[in-house]
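Appendix B, record 7
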Amino acid sequence: MVLHFEHIERQHMRGLPILHPRLAVEAVAARDFGEHTLFILISPWFMNLVLLPGTDEWDACEQGECLDIEFPYEALEFSVSHDAELGTFLSSVLFRTVSEFQDQASACDVATELMRTLFSTNTAADGPANRKRHTLSRRSLLTGLGTN
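Structure tokens (predicted):
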């Protein structure tokens, strides 16, 4: 995955003003998620939560199809991608732009904290049994405040 996005950066993104010059492509905070692998992909132009399937569970899904995936904190919306080189993977946008990060270390720190929060228990007043499904905002994920 990292090599693939480094190639995209070199071949298709070089020189574009959206690239953050102090960030590099890196997979951070990888962990098992059932039979799958979950990590945060930092790039000089975005930060996404990526789910690499360990099964063919999502192979029949349409390109771009959106799926809700449950985490202890709350459900997140993922988009299905089918790539000739990578196969099927799911991704959820965390940051559409990474211009606010000072450097790679600060982006990695935020990614690590995001992953920790994602696997913490949602302590919203309505409780986990009554929580609504919604896309997690960066603010709610970082602060622990629900978006409901």
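Remarks on this record: The CA atoms of residues 28 and 40 lie 5 Å apart. The mean pLDDT is 86.
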